[in-house]
Amino acid sequence: MPQRNKDSRPVAVLGIGRFGLRIAKNLARGGEEVIACDRDRDSVESIADSVAQAIVLDVTDEQAMR
To answer: pTM of this prediction?
Structure first.
């Protein structure tokens, strides 16, 4: 696995549909620290082992995002 750049910040992927899932996994494989968020628990569980953090969260809920 590639080394993560110490100066880089985590990357958040909001929505783990087909596109978000591929983006999150590719970024993580590339050494990025990925935080993946989706309101669907099954989607979050399916990616949990591939990213730094996987969070069940409705990103359209402003209060939850705080």
So the answer is: 0.83
